[in-house]
UniProtKB/TrEMBL annotation:
Classification lineage: Bacteria, Pseudomonadati, Bacteroidota, Flavobacteriia, Flavobacteriales
Protein name: Leucine-rich repeat domain-containing protein
InterPro entries for the chain: LRR_dom_sf, Trimer_LpxA-like_sf
Origin superkingdom: Bacteria
Signal peptide span: none
Native species: Gramella jeungdoensis
């Protein structure tokens, strides 16, 4: 027998739920601090840029969007976010929030993380392939080990033509060592 927590996600932030309803994602169409997990599980891209329903403060429930590849939640009042359950995420846009904490510890597909927060001050250089956040910005984690980063920098892939980049982007961003092995680098 299914329990309520098996079928529903808690969506405590009214603004978040109103946006989900406006986008046709929360299928019951009622602001009731919950939505069906099955509604969330099929969403690949979530743009929360609609501000007419107010700024989102609490993005609890995002963990149920397990197929999510792109998240846009710019210019809200989000202070902390745990995206560790959203392991398919490739791009995250959180600029203009008041972030003090972000968990992307299991996001191995992450290619882009834009989270310059409102009034953030980046006081020092951020090393290549490093995820940083907070105020002041601090290292959260390295995307790859030191040897892999060195190989990626030596490749100078950013000088390649767009077709070559497009052809190889998945390999280079998800598991560059497979790419290196394939081409004896």
């Amino acid at each position: 027998m299914d329990t309520i927590s098996d079928k529903f996600l808690s969506i405590p932030d009214t603004s978040f739920e109103k946006i989900l309803i406006a986008k046709g994602i929360d299928s019951d169409g009622v602001v009731n601090q919950q939505m069906l997990k099955s509604d969330a599980e099929t969403v690949l891209e979530l743009d929360l840029g609609i501000l007419e329903y107010g700024a989102i403060h609490d993005i609890s429930g995002i963990e149920g969007f397990t197929s999510l590849k792109r998240l846009y939640a710019n210019q809200h009042n989000i202070e902390q976010i745990d995206l560790s359950a959203n392991i398919l995420l490739e791009e995250i846009y959180l600029a203009g929030n008041n972030l003090s904490s972000i968990n992307v510890s299991k996001n191995t597909n992450l290619v882009l993380l834009d989270l310059i927060a409102t009034e953030s001050v980046v006081t020092k250089n951020i090393e290549p392939y490093t995820i940083a956040g907070g105020n002041p910005a601090k290292e959260i984690k390295k995307r790859f080990d030191k040897n892999t980063v060195e190989k990626l920098l030596n490749l100078k892939w950013w000088n390649w033509d767009i077709d070559t980049i497009t052809k190889n982007v998945q390999k280079l961003t998800t598991n560059p060592n497979d790419f290196f092995n394939e081409f004896n680098i």
